[in-house]
């Protein structure tokens, strides 16, 4: 491949992943054509893209970016999965895809500059909460003490309101109220 063509390929890689600092590196070697097409189609529905890359050219294209670290030890055929809701969602989808396509090899993943190596690393990443899940957990933690305080204040007040309502009902019916 000439130097000019390599330059075009490097620019193509950089433009494809522009705006994505996180991703999963995998190998599709051994996966036949129809399962590969089905995998890509299923992932595309979730806005996840797969780009087969040459390791040496990808290292040059992603130099200085968030994806650079996961390509440091990459050998053999590689593909980059990126996009979707988050890299955690990408990892979860690829772990699910492994059930039907055990030929897929998970090489590495990167989340905010942290490298997860091998299948074990990608599985660990898939157990992280997504951005929306993390926000929901934080909101729950923040609102928890407020709910407890509100329940503590509301409980005795509801009891007093119930007593007052009972007294009112008795007085409306003409009954007398005696102190006990």
How does this model look, in words?
By secondary structure, the protein is an alpha+beta fold. The chain folds into two domains: about 5-130, Alpha-Beta Plaits, CATH 3.30.70; about 130-180. The chain contains six helices and five strands. A five-stranded antiparallel β-sheet has the order 2-3-1-4-5. β4 (about 105-110) and β5 form a beta hairpin. It is elongated. The mean pLDDT is about 80.
* Uncertain segments: none
Q: What spatial order of strands do you see in the largest sheet? A: 2-3-1-4-5
Classification by helices and strands? alpha+beta
The description of the largest β-sheet is: 5 strands, antiparallel
Roughly what percent helix?
55-70%
Q: What is the count of structural domains? A: 2
Give the radius of gyration: 29 Å
Shape: elongated
Q: Number of DSSP strands? A: 5
What's the mean pLDDT score? 81
- CATH structural class of the largest domain: Alpha Beta
Briefly summarize what is shown.
With 180 residues, this protein is an alpha+beta fold. It has six helices and five strands; from the N terminus they run αβαβαβαββαα. It is elongated and about 105 Å long.
List the topology elements.
Blueprint: H1 3-16, E1 23-27, H2 33-45, E2 48-53, H3 55-61, E3 78-83, H4 87-100, E4 105-111, E5 114-117, H5 118-126, H6 131-172
Antiparallel strand pairs: 1-3, 1-4, 2-3, 4-5
Helix pairs in contact: 1-3, 4-5
